[in-house]
């Protein structure tokens, strides 16, 4: 059970690390498109 918990934790952390840059890029693109 502990192993599964760590596995899910690692997956959530990996997803967060991958999603944060994507969200940041999306906000930057939206800001640039709105400025134009």
What are the key terms here?
mainly alpha; 94% helix; transmembrane helix; transmembrane; membrane
In a nutshell, what does this entry contain?
The chain crosses the membrane at residues 6-29. The protein is mostly helical.
Shape: rod-shaped
Mean pLDDT: 88
The percent range for helix content is over 70%
Secondary structure category: mainly alpha
* β-strand number: 0
Report the uncertain regions: none
What count of helical segments does DSSP give?
1
When the domains are counted, the total is 1
Radius of gyration: 16 Å
| Ends distance | 52 Å
How would a textbook summarize the main sheet?
none
Write the H/E string, N to C: H
Strand content: under 5%
Keywords: Membrane, Transmembrane, Transmembrane helix
Structure characterization notes:
The chain crosses the membrane at residues 6-29. Keywords: Membrane, Transmembrane, Transmembrane helix. This protein is mostly helical and 36 residues long. The chain has one domain (1-36). Helix content is 94%, strand content 0%. It is rod-shaped.
Give a topology summary.
Blueprint: H1 2-35
């Amino acid at each position: 059970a502990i192993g599964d918990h760590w596995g899910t934790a690692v997956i959530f952390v990996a997803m967060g690390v991958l999603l944060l840059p994507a969200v940041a890029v999306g906000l930057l693109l939206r800001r640039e498109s709105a400025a134009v």
